[in-house]
Design goal:
CATH superfamily of the largest domain: Aldolase class I
Helix content: 25-40%
Strand content: 15-25%
Radius of gyration: 22 Å
Distance between the termini: 54 Å
CATH class of the largest domain: Alpha Beta
Number of strands: 14
CATH architecture of the largest domain: Alpha-Beta Barrel
Bound molecules: S-adenosyl-L-homocysteine
Order of helices and strands: HEHHHEEEEEEHEHEHEHEHHEHEHEHH
C-alpha cells in the first residue's frame, strides 16, 4: 500500500534525462531491482529502442507500468544539411520551439560529434555567432544526450560508409560549465558502458574558463578539457571573452593545473581563434609561451570563421604559420584546426540555431563579466 502511494506520486520521467544512478533510484521507487537500469539504458542508447513494448527482457507488467510512469522523448529533427567536405549539421527543435545545432565531422581516423549545451549563450564573446543570439535557456540532459542519440540514428539511416561517432566535443552552442547539473549526467551516459561506452579521452568539454565549473568537473567527472583562451594578456582577453573580468588568466591557469594533475598530468588543449592584427602577432605568441610555461598544454589555433555582423577578420595563413612556428620552437605542441563545414555554417563559432532569447546580447554579459 505504502509503495503504491510512492509509485503513484512520481511524475512521469523522461528516461533520457536519467543517468544510471538516477535510473536505479527510479526503479527502486517502482519496487524493481537495480539491474533494470542497465537493461533500459542498453535498449535506449545501444539499440536505439524507444518503445517500451520492444524491450523484450522486461516483463509485460513492468512495460505497462513504464508506459504510465515514464516517457522517452527526443527533440525533433528540423533540418539536416550536408557539407561538401562530408560534415553534417542538424538543427534539432526542442519542445518550446528553440532550435539547437549539432555537427558531425568525419575524419580519416575518427568521427567527431560537436554537441550544444545551452540554447544560446550568456557569455558574449565578441567574435562568436552564438553570442549574437542571446541566451534562451539551459538544455536538459535529454536534450544534450538526445543530440547524440539522434545523430547516431541519422548516420545509420544515411547508410553511407560513415565510421560513426568515436569522439564527442561539447563545443557547440553554449557554455557547458554553466549547465553542469544537466551536462554531468549526459557525460556520464557518454562514458557508461551500458550506453555509449566512450573513454574519457574521447569526450572533450570546451569552456571559456568558468573556474568553479572546472573544479567541479575535476571532482565529479574527469573528461578531456579544452579552454578557449584567445589572448595571452588580461587586457585583451577582457575584450574578447568578457568572462575574463570575473576569472582572469592567472587564476584560470591555476585551475587548469589542478585539473591536469588530477587527470594523470594530461594536457589541456588551449583554443586560440586567430584574429587579424588583434591577437596574431609574434609578441602574442611569445607571451602565450610564457604564460603557459608551467601548464601541461597543447594549443589549437582556430582560423576565425566569418560571422555576419562581426567586424573581425581571419589572420592570413602566413601569420597563422608564423605564430605556430614560434609556439612549436618554444616547445608547445600546436596545431591549426582545419576549417570544416563552413559552406553550411557549421564551423566553430558559426552555430546559432534559432533561439528565443530571454536575455538579448546587449544585456547578457553583465552578471558574468562583472
Ligand atoms: N563556450 C565554450 C564552447 C563553445 S565555443 C567555449 O567557449 O569554449 C567553441 C570554440 O569556438 C571556442 O573556442 C570559441 O571561442 C570558438 N569560436 C567562437 N566563435 C568563433 C569564430 N567565429 N571563429 C572561430 N572560432 C570561434
Amino acid at each position: 500500500m505504502g509503495d503504491c502511494a510512492v509509485v503513484n506520486s512520481i511524475e512521469p520521467l523522461n528516461l533520457l534525462d536519467a543517468d544510471n544512478s538516477s535510473l536505479e533510484s527510479f526503479f527502486a521507487v517502482l519496487g524493481e531491482r537495480k539491474f533494470r537500469s542497465s537493461q533500459v539504458l542498453q535498449w535506449i542508447h545501444k539499440s536505439g529502442i524507444v518503445e517500451f513494448d520492444r524491450m523484450t527482457n522486461l516483463s509485460k507488467s513492468l512495460r505497462e507500468l513504464l508506459k504510465q510512469k515514464a516517457s522517452i522523448t527526443l527533440p525533433d529533427v528540423f533540418e539536416e544539411r550536408q557539407s561538401s567536405d562530408g560534415c553534417i549539421k542538424w538543427l534539432f527543435r526542442l519542445n518550446d520551439n528553440n532550435i539547437i545545432e549539432t555537427v558531425y565531422i568525419p575524419e580519416p581516423s575518427r568521427g567527431t560529434l560537436c554537441i550544444s549545451s545551452q540554447a544560446g549563450c550568456q557569455l558574449n564573446c565578441t567574435f562568436c555567432a552564438t553570442a549574437q543570439q542571446g541566451f534562451s535557456r539551459q538544455l536538459k540532459t535529454s536534450e544534450i544526450i538526445g543530440q547524440l542519440w539522434l545523430a547516431t540514428r541519422q548516420l545509420e539511416a544515411l547508410a553511407k560508409n560513415h565510421r560513426g561517432i568515436t569522439n564527442i566535443v561539447l563545443m557547440g552552442m553554449g557554455e557547458p560549465l554553466l549547465n553542469l547539473p544537466h551536462v554531468l549526467p549526459a557525460i556520464r551516459l557518454m562514458l557508461d558502458n551500458n550506453a555509449y561506452n566512450l573513454s574519457r579521452k574521447r569526450v572533450t568539454l570546451s569552456t571559456a574558463g568558468v573556474i568553479p565549473g572546472i573544479d567541479r568537473l575535476r571532482e565529479e567527472c574527469l573528461t578531456s578539457l579544452a579552454v578557449s583562451l584567445h589572448a595571452p594578456y588580461d587586457e585583451l582577453r577582457d575584450k574578447l571573452v568578457p568572462l575574463n573580468k570575473k576569472y582572469p588568466i592567472g587564476d584560470l591557469l591555476e585551475a587548469c593545473k589542478r585539473y591536469s594533475k588530477s587527470n594523470n598530468d594530461s594536457e589541456i588543449t588551449f583554443e586560440y581563434t586567430m584574429l587579424e592584427e588583434i591577437n596574431d602577432q609574434p609578441k602574442h605568441a611569445k607571451k602565450l609561451l610564457e604564460v603557459l610555461s608551467a601548464v601541461p598544454a597543447k594549443i589549437n589555433l582556430i582560423p576565425f570563421n566569418k560571422v555576419e555582423g562581426i567586424p573581425f577578420r581571419c589572420s592570413p595563413v602566413k601569420s597563422i604559420d608564423r605564430f605556430r612556428e614560434i609556439l612549436v620552437k618554444g616547445g608547445i605542441i600546436s596545431t591549426t584546426r582545419k576549417t570544416r563545414g563552413d559552406d553550411i555554417n557549421a564551423a566553430c563559432g558559426q552555430l546559432a540555431g534559432f533561439v528565443k532569447p530571454r536575455i538579448p546580447r546587449r544585456h547578457s554579459n553583465s552578471s558574468w563579466a562583472n
